[in-house]
Design brief:
Blueprint lengths: L7 E5 H13 L6 E5 L1 H6 L2 H11 L3 E4 L2 H9 L6 E3 L7 H6 L3 E4 L2 H13 L5 E6 L14 H8 L5 E7 L11 H22 L4 E3 L3 H6 L7 E4 L10 H4 L6 E6 L2 E5 L4 E2 L5 E2 L4 E6 L17 E4 L2 E6 L7 E4 L10 E5 L5 H7 L4 H7 L5 E5 L1
Parallel strand pairs: 1-19, 2-3, 2-9, 3-4, 4-5, 5-6, 6-7, 7-8
Antiparallel strand pairs: 1-10, 10-18, 11-14, 12-13, 14-17, 15-16, 16-17
Helix pairs in contact: 1-3, 6-7, 11-12
């Protein structure tokens, strides 16, 4: 890869492939794999990531919203795509693009059934989301009879999968709660099978669940953050490879005298002679204000350079007093050498938030 000349997010498809194969290696051979590619594939490049994963043989994709699924279809992705949080206003577009909705409430089920009937659909694939403790979206355990009654004997819809979501799969202190969720979900699946006469695909585990609760693989697992190189645990992180590397350059160097201030609100005051570097990246690019004022650092020539003062919309300033460098030199924000998890943690955030916040104005470079 040539030296970057501007703020650039490098996306390694080889790292993506490695992570997929590692996660697959922890599963039973018959367990299906659903890849979560919502939010531009966790801030990277949804089309490039999905295209690579489809070639690797992933069984399902998941997105949050219908427009994300449409983007994948237009890019030529033919694998099944589950839409996790569809809205009624997008149901016709969903059907037109052969996307599969997660139905999570009596209202949304009734509405989608009516749309499917209006479009003369037969056995249109749907997925039922059940709430077992996250209390975000989902039917309740006692909704099974209502669901089956609503579907009736008509054949407009067919339940392809039933799923739920663990609330704290990465937290060993919450093991009892997670096991309780798994028990509840198992009972829901059996109740649904009894009422339907067949068992849909069952899935409950996210990335941390895959690692911590292998006995609950059911028929399929879902992985998002793990595919991109993070497992919510330092030991697991060491077995994965970060897909995204964020780099920028030094735009200008400044010599600061004692008592001089840097940035908005004069948030940084020099306690001696300092050298600062201004970088072309800011909160409009996803590096929020919480990372400023010494909370975190970038890496220049292998050495840490703390962010000083307030993060600006398009720029940050860093202290390079003890780093031999020049204007135009490359700067690592996160990637190999400083993980996104470490960078995010220093700003009291998480890798998910940092990765998905990287603006679409940041140049993406796909590395094979």
């Amino acid at each position: 890869m040539d030296k970057v000349g501007e703020t650039t997010l490098e996306i390694s498809l080889s790292a993506l492939s490695y992570n997929y194969r590692y996660l697959k290696s922890t599963l039973s051979t018959e367990t299906k794999f659903l890849a979560v590619v919502k939010a531009f594939a966790y801030g990277s490049d949804m089309v490039a990531v999905a295209t690579k994963l489809e070639a690797l043989g992933v069984d399902y994709f998941a997105v949050a919203y219908v427009k994300e699924g449409i983007l994948l279809r237009k890019a030529g992705i033919t694998s099944p795509i589950l839409v996790l949080h569809p809205q009624e206003t997008n149901f016709e577009q969903l059907i037109a693009s052969c996307l599969e909705p997660s139905l999570y409430s009596p209202r949304i089920l009734k509405s989608f059934l009516a749309t499917a009937k209006a479009h003369k659909q037969t056995n249109y694939p749907i997925h039922l989301k059940f709430n077992t403790g996250l209390n975000r979206l989902g039917f309740w355990e006692n909704d099974v009879a209502h669901i089956v009654k609503t579907l009736g004997t008509e054949k407009a819809l067919r339940i392809t999968s039933v799923f739920s979501h663990l609330a704290a799969s990465e937290d060993v202190q919450e093991k009892a709660f997670s096991l309780g969720q798994i028990k509840t979900f198992t009972a829901i699946c059996e109740s649904l099978k009894s009422a339907l006469g067949y068992m849909p695909i069952r899935h409950m585990l996210n990335t941390s669940g895959i690692i911590n609760y292998p006995q609950a693989q059911f028929d399929m697992v879902r992985s998002g953050i793990g595919l991109y190189g993070f497992g919510n645990d330092k030991e697991i992180d060491s077995k994965l490879r970060p897909v995204a590397t964020l780099k920028t350059i030094i735009s200008q160097l400044h010599k600061i005298e004692p008592g001089e201030t840097v940035g908005y609100n004069r948030a940084y005051a020099a306690n001696g002679y300092r050298t600062t570097a201004t970088l072309p990246i800011g909160h409009a690019d996803g590096i929020g204000r919480q990372y400023g004022n010494g909370k975190t650092k970038v890496v220049i020539h292998g050495q840490p350079a703390p962010i000083i003062g307030n993060v600006c919309m398009d720029m940050i300033m860093v202290d390079v007093t003890h780093i031999p460098c020049k204007e135009g030199d490359e700067v690592l924000v996160f990637g190999a050498g400083q993980s996104a998890e470490t960078f995010a943690d220093n700003g009291n955030s998480i890798s998910y938030e940092l990765l998905t916040a990287i603006s679409q104005r940041v140049k993406r470079v796909i590395l094979e």
